[in-house]
């Protein structure tokens, strides 16, 4: 199979979907790898690195999309890329379709086979989402601590306080990978941390393993409102695989918070778990609503691309190899994880939560594959 890697065009997105080591693995497996010039530059990976690994360099994205059977990306295709996608082509990337109806409709219309990192399941885990969730969770505390500074619009509180002055109160909504990493980082900096979830078993686990300055609270709408009153920093870390994030904080709830408090909504890729959330970029990461600073960057790990690229590709490469070896139809039939990653197949929407989010027609993935086999 001919496999392409394109340079990301999302603002301040410097990750790349394949490292030279991954290129080497694919080439040795008998595939041809075509890499857009400077695709790895943001992660300190040169064109020569890919050439040395057996890859071929193409001048632009149009060349890569035009000749490759499968295209690897990190972020969802942007409108400028939609016209480049061909019918029957396989795309493997983060899509987050439930947050973007226009993107969903464009991918269905393209007739491409879209496999999404974020919905690939193994058991009850999401192995291709986990590494970026770890990065984003840790970064959420860095970003939140910075936004709390007065010149950033925050209340002017040091996250960890100092002797004789109380530290900040951090509220983490969601006890999954993002929430756990965020809470751990905040605890390490000395903040008072509260982590909320609806899964009692998860709360029991967190209560055992987290530091003593972290407490767990069962999440209900009333409990969330009670915690918002005291919070200096709120981290939105709720995920429902493939579906839009539930709105746990409404605009009306903002009136309960301290002026200058900060919200970091890591769930923005899935529409955000705060009603006032809207996607931002690293160029303009924040906005203020009712006196509350919102940090809603949709590609947070893109700010640390070297770490993020290697963390991501360590997880994606085994599935890239499988998908390249089998092709989309066989991959769906023979690989349960890749079947869960299939969001569109040949013009059919095959991810039930996305179809439900937009009221669109849903086709079971095996039915969609049967139609093209």
Describe the protein in words:
The structure is a single chain. The strands form 2 sheets. An 8-stranded mixed β-sheet has the order 3-2-1-4-5-6-14-15, sandwiched between helices. A 7-stranded mixed β-sheet has the order 9-8-7-10-11-13-12, sandwiched between helices. Helix 10 (305-334) packs across helix 13. The protein has 13 helices and 15 strands. It has helices at 20-28, 47-52, 61-67, 79-82, 101-110, 130-147, 177-188, 200-209, 221-228, 305-334, 336-341, 352-358, 365-372, and strands at 2-5, 32-36, 56-58, 70-72, 90-93, 113-116, 169-173, 192-197, 214-218, 233-236, 262-265, 286-289, 292-295, 342-345, 348-349. The mean pLDDT is 96. It has 2 domains: 2-126 and 305-372, NAD(P)-binding Rossmann-like Domain (Rossmann fold); 130-303, NAD(P)-binding Rossmann-like Domain (Rossmann fold, 3-Layer(aba) Sandwich), CATH 3.40.50.720. The chain is of the alpha/beta class. Strand 2, helix 2 (47-52) and strand 3 form a beta-alpha-beta unit. The two termini are 18 Å apart. Helices cover 36% and strands 16% of the residues. The longest helix has 30 residues, at 305-334.
């Amino acid at each position: 199979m001919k496999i392409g890697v394109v340079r990301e065009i999302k603002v301040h997105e410097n990750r790349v979907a394949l490292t030279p080591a991954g290129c080497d693995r694919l080439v040795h497996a008998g595939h041809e790898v075509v890499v857009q010039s400077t695709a790895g530059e943001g992660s300190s990976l040169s064109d020569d690195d890919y050439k040395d690994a057996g890859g071929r360099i193409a001048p632009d994205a149009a060349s890569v999309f035009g000749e490759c059977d499968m295209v690897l990306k990190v972020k969802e295709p942007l409108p400028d890329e939609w016209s480049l996608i061909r019918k029957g082509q396989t795309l493997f990337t983060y899509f987050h379709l439930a947050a973007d109806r226009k993107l969903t409709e464009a991918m269905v219309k393209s007739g491409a086979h879209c496999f999404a990192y974020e919905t690939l399941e193994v058991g009850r885990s999401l192995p291709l989402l986990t590494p970026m969730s770890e990065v984003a969770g840790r970064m959420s505390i860095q970003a939140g601590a910075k936004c709390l500074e007065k010149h950033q619009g925050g209340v002017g509180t040091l996250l960890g306080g100092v002797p004789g002055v109380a530290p900040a109160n951090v509220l983490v909504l969601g006890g999954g990978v993002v929430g756990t990493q965020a809470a751990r980082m905040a605890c390490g900096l000395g903040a008072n941390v509260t982590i909320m979830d609806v899964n009692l078993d998860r709360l029991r686990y967190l209560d055992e393993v987290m530091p003593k300055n972290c407490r767990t609270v069962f999440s209900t709408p009333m409990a969330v409102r009670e915690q918002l009153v005291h919070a200096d920093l709120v981290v939105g870390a709720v995920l429902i695989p493939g579906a839009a994030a539930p709105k746990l904080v409404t605009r009306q709830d903002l009136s309960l918070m301290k002026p200058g408090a900060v919200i970091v909504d890591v769930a923005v890729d899935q529409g955000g778990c705060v009603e006032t959330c809207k996607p931002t970029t690293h160029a303009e990461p924040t906005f203020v609503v009712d006196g509350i600073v919102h940090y809603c960057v949709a590609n947070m790990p893109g700010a640390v691309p070297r770490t993020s690229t290697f963390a991501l590709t360590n997880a994606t490469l085994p599935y890239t190899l499988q998908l390249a070896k089998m092709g989309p139809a066989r991959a769906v039939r023979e690989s349960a994880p890749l079947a869960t990653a299939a969001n569109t197949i040949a013009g059919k929407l095959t991810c039930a939560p996305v179809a439900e989010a937009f009221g669109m027609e849903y086709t079971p993935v095996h039915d969609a594959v049967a139609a093209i086999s």
